Amino acid sequence: MSELEPNRGRDPAMADARWNYLCKVGGWAALIAVFIFRRWLGSEFLLLRAIGVIRFGPKAPPSSVVDWFALLHSNRLVGLTLLNFFDIFNYALVGLMFLGLYAALRRVNRSSMTLAMALGFLGIAVYFASNQALALLSLSDQYAAAATDAQRSMFLAAGQALLAIHDQNAFHQTALGFLLVTLAGLLISIVMLRSSIFGKGTAYTGFLANSFGLGYPVGVAFAPNPLVVPVAAISLSFSACFLVFWYIGIARRLLQLGAGKPVGRNRGIIEAS
Questions:
Q1: Where are the domains positioned within the chain?
Q2: Which CA distances in Å does 240 have to 41, 106, 223?
Q3: Backbone torsion region of residue 58, taken as left when φ is above 0, otherwise alpha when ψ lies between -120 and 50, otherwise beta
Q4: What pLDDT was estimated at residue 225?
């Protein structure tokens, strides 16, 4: 009995079940990321507000810390949306999707997939560190509960400093996080092209989505140039469209793999050395 104990952890069926579970989690994460917690919900809200689809909330982001505090106090959901708080959920879901993709593609090119995971999770960590939504929400609550003008002035000063940090650094940190995640997606798409686990359509869609996505960090880097900004915005719009189809293609295949369905003809799969 004791001689069999060390071999339990090496049972191929158990190992496959673990990888299949990661595929299933990654597939559901991709669906939630594309249909519920999409990236840049704040920009989407302002667009829908401008064309009249949404009839509540501000038509533009607040311009002062007092206005931010007032919005967060009166409508937390809208305030957090405009502060891109819900993008945190999107990046977390993308991280789970990447884990599912690693489970599916690890035997195609282990070194490339490992690098993609490192880039992706570093980018997610950078974005988490750059988002100031919860800190501003906490200050707004303290400002609303303040009993004296001196306390309110203190919280306004803290909020102003936080907004200044957000305006000067977080935008570029957000772009850096997006760049790293996009590079990870581009690398994963290239690995997809080398296997038959995912269809070529899914692989090429991912390649286009992440290639266009590189226009955003380039636009941030050259933001003072008036010609670069609209090009970056157009590039980002194309990226967002392709990302929707890429995520759906990923979700479909990962859920199939998670259910234990065979990958089919695996020509082109290169076992990692």
A1: 16-258
A2: 12, 26, 20
A3: beta
A4: 52
